Amino acid sequence: MKNVIVTPTYNEKDNIARLLSHLVRLPIDNVSIVVVDDNSPDGTSSIVRDVMKEHASVHLISRAGKLGLGTAYIEGFQKALSLGADCVIQMDADFSHDPDDISRLVSHMDRFDVAIGSRKIMGGKIVGWGSIRKGMSAGAMFFSRLCLRFKTKDVTAGFRCFKRHVLEAIDLPSIKSNGYAFQEEVLFRIEQKGFFVKEVPVTFVDRKEGKSKLSKKDIVEFFLIILKLRKQRKKGSY
Ligand SMILES: Nc1nc2c(ncn2[C@@H]2O[C@H](COP(=O)(O)OP(=O)(O)OP(=O)(O)O)[C@@H](O)[C@H]2O)c(=O)[nH]1
Ligand SMILES: [Mg+2]
Q1: What is the CA radius of gyration of the chain?
Q2: Structural domains counted in the chain
Q3: Measured between alpha carbons, how far is 37 from 2 in angstroms, rounded to an integer?
Q4: Which of 24, 25, 51, 162 is spaced 20 to 30 Å from 217 by Cα?
Q5: Tens digits of residue pLDDT in 149-201
Q6: In ligand 1, which atom is closest to the CA atom of 204?
Q7: How large is the angle between the packed helices 131-148 and 179-192, nearest 10 degrees?
Q8: Does the pTM exceed 0.70?
Q9: What is the DSSP letter of 195?
Q10: Ligand 2 centroid to 212 CA: how many Å?
Q11: Which residue's C-alpha comes closest to atom 6 of ligand 1?
């Protein structure tokens, strides 16, 4: 079974080399890695190119500028499918997602369509966020779950593993949202299609290197997308 890990990067020079060296050594069969970099001013892509000289399993999509997380994932997922992925794993490059948890996500792929690294079920947690950030995240998720009736608890998780047929079924290019809203919209489509989702408890650790790219615009978009998806839910289509 071929597994492709997709990680978007913007200014991750202090994380990317260590992350890639960890990913290429994972005890999982047939792993490739796709980094989607948005011309990071800190030179992240040249670090990736250096790693590629040693490891043919590492691929880079280098985009012209900061085009946003949503389209970065879409391009990364499409590349993963073109590489022949049976399973596609998405994760952040900032070590908030522990590379050693990937095998736990992949281990559910024989029974489920999607596995989500969840901070919101028993055994999952967030380390390093202050009470304001935790409160904002919990409030946003509560509202989103209330409006859109998600079964999944961790709606905004960016640590996920999909079977190939899931990504083929959800019409990726028509997803217009970015940031946290992208995770929400993808999950909405997955649940609307009735795919089987497994939440796997993980510990999310706030980044130690580099800066968060979460913006006010992303937060506003998160709530606007809820309204858009709610309308679609009522119409029974997306
Ligand atoms: N290619 C690309 N990657 C991005 C962009 N914005 C963020 N990223 C990457 O996406 C991942 C998640 O971004 P973070 O800044 O960690 O945001 P977050 O995890 O939602 O928020 P924090 O919890 O504050 O870390 C990281 O690997 C970033 O480098 C973007 O516009 N383009
Ligand atoms: Mg992060």
Answers
A1: 17
A2: 1
A3: 23
A4: 162
A5: 999 999 999 999 999 999 999 999 999 888 779 999 999 999 999 999 999 99
A6: 23
A7: 30
A8: yes
A9: -
A10: 6
A11: 69
